[in-house]
Amino acid sequence: MADPTVIVVGNEKGGAGKSTLAIHIACGLLHAGKTVAIIDLDLRQRSMSKFFANRAAWMAGNDQTLLMPFEPDMGDGKALARADETEQLARFDAAFAEARAGADFILIDTPGGDTVLSRTAHGLADQIVTPMNDSFVDFDLLGQIDPVTLDLLKPSIYSESVWEARKHRAITEGRTAAIDWIVVVNRMAVAAARNRQRLEERMEKLARRVGFRIGPGLRDRVIYRELFPFGLTVADLSNDVRPVAVSLAHVAARQELRNLMQALGLDGGSLNAPLDAAA
Asked: In angstroms, rounded to a whole number, what is the distance separating the alpha carbons of residues 65 and 76?
């Protein structure tokens, strides 16, 4: 069996939508017929782990069968967060070895900060997906700009982290630029067009400089939040699975997810099937 593809969802800033993105990528892959292993390195919050626990509970309570990923057991997250780095790395190494034994994809969600586990995961990535909000506040972790002219000055701390991960991959595996890095803009506002144009121009310059691709993210829709308690995404909605009334907004959200999967070079699977909105 070929080695699984490792996708790391990372950004050192909290609130950028990493877990939401990771959840949707995982479900998109499941609906494309892939076997998926997930590892949640946000040890205290564990949003991705909780999402799939909600999914299992919803299935049991509604006599439904949905696709599920495999999650290696890393024990109590809060206790592990207090453990020393040696123990954390040992638990992660064991979980990663278990995941790679039987999955097509390993999807790793990382915390909003610089941790030894996050750095290690980035070094194992085949693809890094970085969500950012439609804001210069989020861009600051990728690139520094001149406060007077708004000219791009240099890469910032997270870009440097990805560079280190790429260098580590090249040294350990003899490959250069082996990590495909894609930055997606989440939660785009409907206004502030001038600010967005300025941001997009700086992103394009930085992309050429440090080597990432720019892709579509997920807009700030209530839909994504309202399905979380059920452990569901727009990819799961069907005639049988409709915990909420399906509207045209759900259809649009499904198209967003399809566009994201295509930008990542991943199969959209059943996302290509039509979703009929309720009258």
From this structure: 27
